[in-house]
Automatic annotation (TrEMBL), chain A:
Organism: Heliobacterium chlorum
Protein name per UniProt: Uncharacterized protein
Domain of life assignment: Bacteria
Automatic annotation (TrEMBL), chain B:
Protein name per its UniProtKB record: Uncharacterized protein
Domain of life from the UniProt record: Bacteria
InterPro entries to which the protein is assigned, alphabetical: P-loop_NTPase
Organism: Heliobacterium chlorum
From TrEMBL, chain C:
Residues annotated as domain B12-binding: 4-132
InterPro entries (alphabetical): Cobalamin-bd (IPR006158), Cobalamin-bd_sf (IPR036724)
Highest taxon, organism lineage: Bacteria
Highest classification ranks of the organism: Bacteria, Bacillati, Bacillota, Clostridia, Eubacteriales
Pfam families according to UniProt: B12-binding
Record's protein name: Cobalamin B12-binding domain-containing protein
Length: 84, 359, 608
């Protein structure tokens, strides 16, 4: 998947941090990943989760570029300079 | 019921391809199939469910033994027949029958005794073939199968010459002659003949693992043996290491000429050391006039080879897919071993079946 | 049940990881089990060889997972299996990257990852379920004021305070206000049990309405709620009940403190919606908050009388009504301290009564702050404040004396003089006041430069100065690090954590902390940000433990100066015609310093 629009300007990854209401860490994990997939991200992983009583504090990540990939932001910045 | 194990030497050596091919052919021949595995492979986790990804395609009527939690993530519809009450991290191991075809996750028991129990439980459903899918880094429970398929390839060792040498060593270990011993229980012991009378000393259950273990066994044998050379046999403990055997041979080898040494089985021998080291130890033993045997027959049926290997590119810090030339591994390894060597993707499922099952 | 002594083989696979195993060893031995700790870096076959000779019940391997480790661990399990040792021995792996799934994948019977407690391992060995609540996290409510005698340590200041307090009480004799009348009506005629059963006393409502401004009047006579608020619907209430039941069933409170004696940690709630407040409170409890402080909207302090109903709105601060407070009380864990602030407005005295009747643990009262920086008439708040203190004594509610006038620009020593007067007043009336100096980057230090080098010295000076004057509990606030926080969550959590660590090093009794979005003003704060600072404070407490923070020599000098200045201010107050006149004259904070005597309730104090 090639990042498009503003997403292509993300240097490497997008982290999403929030508190999810859930009944177990397992459920929290599942919801966190599902959240990112529902936002259209494919290369996603859970960076951090801590569950307690009402839910889970999470940090979930979507890689826009892994090292070694073709970074669209390089081209865009070049284009900008040429145009400018 | 014939029980076939499939073991992979590394990731990406084609274990799943081999397993799927065997299944495909079994279904074509309308055989009744049962499947279980040694624990599960962590190669393909689904990060949504936190469970292994389903990989094996199964058809209606297949009997599976897998952890309860795996049923939910399998696309095949499975009716539970019984709960073995064997526990695992993914819930208890249940036996079920495939009602609607699809993909399954097989995560079976991970101890030898438990694999044995599951095998017995599955036998009651009278399948023609029980397939035991292996797990990376785990081989010990394969002791429960009747024959083994080894999946290896460039992902294990890229250099075809070195891979051929390792595979040859493994094959030779499996070629050790089988003979049923007479004297001892599983822990083993030492016996020799004086005239018509056999003297037997059972081991107390200690293992033969360290250099010291080998030395102390040698010392005891020498202390008990009469001065003149006698005929004798050692039934080795279930687990031995090449290190311990070497120290035994060094200290008492000359006294043990013409003796028979019984290893438990090829699987426990594979655990003794690197395959080349173990093979070398066996050769050394023979050259000293000793006769190694295994007390459990467990043949290596087929070696499947996969030319694929991931190559690391330091520039982009990523892996790229690479392949050895087609047929190269089959040739190189095939010349070294007596059993069939095949690239399943080239030769196909039928050939694999014929070489494995023979019917 | 006979005690079963277990034998455990502890195996470090790499030397770095030894410490965890040693801790586990100590825990197991304290629990009476036999352990054998092997030297690090043994090859798998040697471990199996030792297993064959020692016959342990459990083997615990610790290993930091890295390249090739799966192979080593898998081989170990294979060897144990092939040697026939798995029947009687449980194989366990622990380490930084170990997850239960991974342990199972490698064929282990169990795996312990990071954050595993020694108690958990002992429970596993003994074959019983691990209950974290019973094993250390059990919390109890603490009386923050316990152990303080309220003796004056500074004789001259003590004498001045005694004189000022006598003068205030003399001045106050025979004075009354609508606020006092309502507080007494609430105290005498409002039965909390009848309220809980939903019984509305017409008599009380009418008598109460006569003492109120039009908005509460409309509520008590016609049932109309404040125009900015709406009632929670029956459906919403049912859902809240359902949510609470479910959440409470899986609640376990944790501790922020690492060592005994570190301050109790309070968070402030007041999203405007009691339901959201409850959701936030449960999160904070789970992440270790010891207490929660109810924030009400500012218009509540400027209106004579309370309305009722389970009300929500979308502005800062949650409305004080008997229903709202009851719901929040019902949501709290038994160990959570609950403070309802009374301190600043026209309902100060009655708030104390309501809080007391509905089961609060603490309240907040400060006459000087309320009349100089919160808009209430000095005379009115003086008479209401005295009544509030008397009610706090009656309902056994300790209260903090806040000094937020510092944020307006009043120098610390003046704010402290006001705080000490109210504290001395409380002391005289038999109350349990708590000093609440600010830990903040206040206008005074911005101009005066006391925090150019560090945030330690001036805050330490404040604590030192107060301690040299009176033996009283200290609760820096509110929140600590105020005005040092930015909108960046890492910066914000960090500064809160460091201020908390400073508070702990200074041995104070409690702190109030902000969330990591404290400095953001575009909308309400969120739960995840509350977790941030609770985590950060826990880490600060963990880092410093019994360790100390050393202020520079400035701290003592500033503390001495502060005490001298406090004494000077108190002398002036003692010489003023009255405390109220002193407030008007700017002795405890002048207009130039940003303090304006309030106008709310002016002219409502009457002689009996």
């Amino acid at each position: 998947m090639v990042a498009q629009g503003v997403l292509s300007r993300i240097m490497d990854a997008l982290d999403l941090e929030t508190f999810l209401v859930c009944s177990s860490e397992e459920e929290g994990k599942e919801l966190a990943i599902r959240l990112m997939k529902s936002l259209g991200f494919q290369d996603v992983d859970l960076v951090f989760i801590r569950f307690g009583g009402p839910g889970a504090r999470i940090r979930v990540r979507a890689y826009i570029y892994r090292p070694g990939q073709d970074y669209a932001w390089v081209r865009q910045i070049d284009d900008g300079e040429k145009r400018g | 019921m014939k029980t076939i194990g499939i073991a992979g030497t590394a990731k990406n050596t084609g274990k799943t391809t081999t397993a799927s091919a065997l299944l495909r052919e079994a279904y074509r021949r309308q055989r009744r199939i049962a499947i279980t595995s040694i624990g599960y492979d962590g190669e393909e986790w689904d990060n949504i469910t936190g469970l292994p990804k389903p990989r094996l395609p199964v058809q209606r009527g297949t009997i599976v033994a897998t952890a309860r939690k795996c049923l939910a993530v399998s696309s095949a519809n499975i009716r539970i027949l019984e709960d073995t009450s064997i526990t695992s991290a993914l819930g208890s191991i249940v036996i079920g029958e495939v009602v609607d075809p699809g993909l399954v996750v097989i995560a079976g028991p991970n101890k030898s005794v438990e694999v044995g129990r599951v095998k017995n439980a599955l036998a009651r459903y009278r399948p023609d073939l029980l397939m035991v899918d292996g797990a990376l880094n785990r081989i010990a429970p394969m002791v429960e199968v009747d024959g083994l398929i080894l999946a290896t390839g460039a992902a294990r060792i890229v250099d075809p010459h070195r891979l051929a040498r390792e595979t040859e060593s493994i094959a030779r270990i499996f070629e050790l002659p089988y003979r049923s011993p007479t004297f001892f229980s599983d822990n083993g012991g030492v016996a020799w003949r004086i005239g018509e009378r056999w003297v037997s000393l059972p081991f107390s259950g200690a293992q033969l693992l360290t250099t010291e273990d080998g030395e102390s066994l040698a010392k005891e044998v020498i202390d008990f043996l009469p001065q003149e050379h006698v005929e004798g046999t050692i039934q080795l403990p279930p687990l031995v290491t090449t290190k311990a055997i070497r120290s035994l041979l060094t200290a008492a080898g000359t006294r043990l000429k013409q003796w028979s040494l019984y290893f438990r089985d090829p699987i426990s021998l594979l655990l003794s050391d690197l395959p080349e080291e173990t093979y070398f130890m066996l050769e050394q033993m023979k050259s000293m006039g000793l006769r190694p045997f295994v007390r459990k027959n467990l043949p290596l049926l087929v070696v499947t080879v996969n030319p694929f290997y991931p190559e690391y590119d330091p520039g982009s810090q990523t892996y790229h897919a690479r392949f050895l030339p087609s047929g190269l591994l089959e040739g190189r390894i095939g010349r070294k071993v007596r059993i069939p060597v095949m690239d399943v993707k080239r030769k196909g499922a039928r050939s694999l079946w014929r070489k494995t099952m023979g019917f | 049940m006979a005690f079963e002594r277990r034998k455990i083989l502890l195996v470090p696979l790499d030397p770095v990881h030894d410490i965890g195993l040693k801790m586990i060893r100590r825990g197991l031995e304290q629990a009476g089990h036999q352990t054998l700790l092997l030297p690090p870096d043994l090859p798998p076959e040697e471990i199996v060889s030792i297993m064959g000779k020692e016959h342990p019940d459990h083997v615990m391997i610790s290993r930091t997972l890295g390249y090739g480790v799966g192979e080593v661990l898998g081989r170990f399990v294979d060897l144990a299996d092939a040697a026939g040792l798995r029947d009687k021995t449980t194989l366990v792996v622990g380490g930084m990257a170990v997850r239960p799934e991974l342990a199972a994948e490698l064929g282990f019977d169990a795996g312990f990852g990071p954050g595993t407690s020694v108690e958990e391992v002992v429970a596993f060995v003994e074959g019983r379920p691990y209950q974290p609540d019973l094993a250390g996290a059990k919390k109890q409510k603490k009386d923050i004021t316990a152990g303080y005698a309220y003796d004056f340590r500074h004789g001259a200041i003590g004498n001045l305070l005694e004189k000022i307090v006598t003068d205030i009480l003399t001045w106050d004799e025979g004075k009354i206000s609508p606020g006092i009348l309502r507080s007494r009506l609430r105290d005498e005629s409002w039965d909390v049990e009848s309220f809980r059963q939903g019984k509305v006393s017409r008599e009380f409502s009418e008598a109460y309405a006569q003492l109120c401004d039009p908005v509460p009047q409309a509520f008590h006579r016609k049932g109309e709620v404040h125009p900015k608020t709406r009632r929670q619907t029956d459906q919403e209430i049912a859902r809240l009940e359902d949510y609470l039941t479910k959440t409470k069933s899986r609640m376990s409170v944790s501790k922020v403190q690492h060592v005994e004696g570190q301050p109790k940690v309070f968070i402030q709630y007041g999203t405007g919606c009691p339901f959201m407040d409850i959701a936030h409170i449960k999160v904070c409890e789970a992440w270790g908050a010891d207490g929660v402080v109810h924030f009400d909207p500012s218009w509540g302090a400027r209106t004579e009388g309370f309305i009722g109903g389970f009300l929500t709105h979308q502005e800062d601060g949650s409305v004080i009504t008997p229903e709202n407070l009851s719901w929040i009380k019902a949501a709290l864990e038994p160990s959570t301290l609950w403070q309802v602030r009374a301190h600043r407005g026209l309902n100060t005295a009655e708030t104390v009564v309501l809080a007391g009747k509905l089961g609060a643990d603490l309240t907040k009262i400060n006459i000087a702050y309320g009349s100089l920086a919160a808009g209430t008439d000095p005379a009115r708040l003086t008479v209401d404040g005295i009544e509030a203190i008397r009610m706090a004594v009656k309902y056994k509610l300790p209260f903090d004396v806040v000094t937020n006038e510092e944020l307006a620009g009043v120098p610390a020593h003046k704010a402290f003089a006001g705080m000490l007067i109210v504290t001395a007043l409380g002391r005289r009336l038999g109350a349990r006041p708590i000093l609440q100096p600010l830990f903040s980057y206040s206008p005074e230090v911005m101009i005066g430069g006391q925090m150019i080098d560090n945030y330690i010295d001036f805050n330490a000076a404040k604590i030192e100065a107060l301690r040299s004057i009176i033996d009283a509990p200290l609760w820096p606030g509110a929140p600590i690090g105020f005005l040092t926080q930015t909108e960046d969550r890492v910066q914000s959590s960090m500064t809160t954590s460091l201020h908390a660590a400073l508070a702990a090093a200074l041995r104070v009794d409690a702190i109030s902390i902000a969330s990591s979005d404290e400095a953001y003003s575009g909308g309400p704060i969120i739960a995840a940000s509350r977790v941030d600072t609770l985590q950060a404070v826990a880490e600060g407490f963990r880092f410093f433990g019994e360790g100390r923070i050393a202020p520079t020599s400035h701290a003592q000098r500033w503390a001495d100066e502060m005490v001298d200045k406090i004494e000077a201010v108190l002398k002036e107050v003692a010489q003023a015609p009255s405390f109220v006149e002193a407030l008007y004259a700017g002795l405890l904070g002048s207009k130039e310093e940003g303090a304006y005597p309030g106008r709310g309730g002016r002219g409502t104090v009457t002689e009996k």
